[in-house]
Specification:
By secondary structure, the chain is mainly β. The protein has 1 helix and 4 strands, in the order E-H-E-E-E. The chain has one domain. 10% of the residues lie in helices and 48% in strands. The longest helix has 8 residues.
Amino acid sequence: MSAAVDIRQVAQLSPHEAQRLYGWSDNIYGTAGLNLTYRSKEGVIHFVLYTDAEGPVSHAVVLKHPAIANGSPLSLAESVAS
């Protein structure tokens, strides 16, 4: 029998979600030594995958970028999964 899955859209991860998804390492992407600067969190939409048995198990982010093409405003998006 398989567990039910649920995808939830959230404005930001809760402390529980962040701990569950990233708490197993301080440097999950291997970038700690690169001295990177991250942009603001404006326009970020999170999608969290839950299972009944395990809680949050995966996470994807959509970053929205305002743009103008031929004088008309657009909203571009890129996705990042973790």
